[in-house]
Description:
Number of strands: 4
Number of helices: 6
Helix content: 25-40%
Low-confidence stretches: none
Shape: elongated
Structural class: alpha+beta
Largest sheet: 4 strands, antiparallel
Strand content: 15-25%
Strand order of the largest sheet: 1-2-3-4
Mean pLDDT: 75
Amino acid sequence: MIRRAARGTALVASLVLAAGAGAQQAQQRAAAAPTPREAAPHDLTGYWVSVVTEDWRWRMITPPPGDYASVPLNAAGREAADSWDRAADIQSGNECRPYGAGGIMRVPGRIRIGWEDDVTLKVETDAGTQTRLFHFGAFQSSAAA
């Protein structure tokens, strides 16, 4: 009878320890920070199209040099804008330069937003056929060091 009771106590103790370890693992998983994808306040994934309602003139064409009305610029900004040479960009292979990250989102077109992985948001545009990757968290270069 004592042996049976000892075995029963050992079995109960083993179950309690196993349950405690399982609960501890569950707490560790719950305490782990969510991935940027999980923590995103809104799910923007899908296909989008821009609606041209204001500033249509600047959204339909790349404005000529010196045409930066409604853009708040200081003297250095005006100097940089006035020194831009589209022909030089084309000649040097930088023809997409006017469609930079800030400007491409204001050009009419279709946009596809999705997650490349849990830490990288991917935005693809048909205007300029660009793909932008937004890395959240500590960035790790894929290039060999």
